[in-house]
What does this fold into?
Amino acid sequence: QLQAFGGGLVQAGGSLRLSCAPSGVTFDAYVIGWFRQGPGKEREGVSCISSRAGTTYYADSVKGRFTIMRDNAARTVYLQMNSLRPEDTAVYYCALKQTDWGNRVLKSDFYDYWGQGTLVTVSS
It folds into this structure.
């Protein structure tokens, strides 16, 4: 089970930190991905991280603004979002795949488990 936290309302240029805490996970190797779906838009892969190596990947739209981090002891993954823009407004989801890494890590169908989303609203 996955749960995402940390959404809210922020002004453009502001920051938010989202958290994703998988529960009931007994394996050590997994990839956590963050996705978002804005109003009238398709779901988009934002970033992901591997639990063991800490390998990360970002969509071009968030590079340099978003940072994904992991705390394996707490089994929590964070998405630090800085310099937020109105176009970042979306419901953000985290997802999990039991694997070390893969070729399609920002594709929705790569992941097996999904959490409920958290809404991020960026006002202009």
User: Anything to note?
Assistant: Residues 70 and 77 are 4 Å apart (CA to CA).
